[in-house]
């Protein structure tokens, strides 16, 4: 899956992905989450996924709680490594399921 902030912006600087159509998200986390959900549903049609708005709402909930989760883990949000972020998400998902 290829994502970009705007439709066809990638063509200005990338030729290696010719023939693929990036999905624009306009720097909107909600649109990005919905695009990823829709892509997953396409590549895994047997999965029965809730609508993208459900995942977008869960993402918003996580983001609202992220600072507190980081504080509890003795971490700073601005200095999270990828693994730190994954662990915060895992901790959050233990009590917030879809």
Biggest sheet, open or closed, and with what strands and sense? 2 strands, parallel
- What is the domain total for the residues? 2
Cα-based radius of gyration, to the nearest Å:
16 Å
CA distance, first residue to last residue: 23 Å
What is the total tally of β strands?
2
Helix-strand sequence: EEHHH
Helix content: 40-55%
Regions with little confidence, pLDDT below 50 for 5+ residues: none
Q: Shape, please?
A: globular
Give the number of helices: 3
Helix-strand category: mainly alpha
Q: Can you give the mean pLDDT?
A: 89
- Note the beta-strand portion: under 5%
Spatial strand sequence of the major β-sheet: 1-2
Please describe what this structure looks like.
It is a single chain. The model has no long low-confidence stretch (mean pLDDT 89). A two-stranded parallel ribbon has the order 1-2. Helix content is 51%, strand content 4%. The longest helix is centred in the middle third of the chain and has 21 residues, at 52-72. It has 2 domains: 1-49, no CATH class; 53-98, no CATH class. It has 98 residues and is mainly alpha-helical.
């Amino acid at each position: 899956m290829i994502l970009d902030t705007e439709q066809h912006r990638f063509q200005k600087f990338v030729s290696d992905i010719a023939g693929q159509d990036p999905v624009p998200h306009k720097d909107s986390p909600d649109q990005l989450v919905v695009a990823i959900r829709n892509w997953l549903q396409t590549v895994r049609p047997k999965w029965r996924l809730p609508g993208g708005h459900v995942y977008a709402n869960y993402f918003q909930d996580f983001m609202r709680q992220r600072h507190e989760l980081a504080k509890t883990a003795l971490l700073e949000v601005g200095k999270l490594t990828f693994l730190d972020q994954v662990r915060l998400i895992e901790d959050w998902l233990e009590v917030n399921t879809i």
